[in-house]
Amino acid sequence: MGTLAFPTGGPTTPTPRARRCTAGTPNNGSKRKPPAHKMQRPASHIGMDAMAGLKIGEFAAAAGVGRDAVRHYERIGLLPAVVRNGAGYRVYSDDDLERLQCIRHVHEAGFSLEQTRDLLEASTANRDRIETLLGVTRAKLDAARDNVEWLSEVVTFLTSLVAATPLDEAQPLWVGFQAGRCATRRRRSRFARGNC
């Protein structure tokens, strides 16, 4: 059995490839530092991003309104003075978003812009103004109940059409609806007069 031959001339030097692989390895044997684009940002930095706020397009979309509506509400004071970031963009907080969503719901309920302003300021208003708002809101609630009743009658009408046979003679919506409305008004108010 032959003897093993070792190269002479002292310790071997790493190949160029080995040098490249070990160039970033610290002497303490720790793992190589990952590339910057793969490193996670510190939690404090993430928190700063989360607190940066919404830009106007994101803000408007989150509330279900248009950008022009946001600018208009700012001009007339329904939304507070806008804050701008270092780049000059409008930025909005979660509190701003909740306020804008409230404005949208109040508007959809049929309140005017002035009534909307009064509702937003109701917690600091005097008693007389609050009583006025209460009366307006009750009137709108009554109107909403009438609309629900009307929609219920339309559902009944359409259901009867679905169930009807081709030989059945159905009245147009407005004929049956007018008769139903008159009967409903008589039941709901003893002060009914004239046409109904």
Automatic annotation (TrEMBL):
Q: Tell me which residues make up the HTH merR-type domain.
A: 53-122
| One Pfam family cited in the UniProt record for this chain | MerR_1
* The entry's keywords: DNA-binding
Q: Where is composition skewed (Basic residues) in this entry?
A: 30-40
Alphabetized InterPro entries for the sequence? DNA-bd_dom_put_sf, MerR-type_HTH_dom, MerR_fam
Write down the superkingdom of origin. Bacteria
Feature: compositional bias, Low complexity: 1-26
The cross-references to PROSITE patterns, in alphabetical order and at most eight, read: HTH_MERR_2
MF-aspect GO terms: DNA binding; DNA-binding transcription factor activity
Keyword Transmembrane helix part of the UniProt annotation:
no
**Segments for region (Disordered):** 1-42
Protein name as annotated: MerR family transcriptional regulator
Q: Which organism is it from?
A: Novosphingobium subterraneum
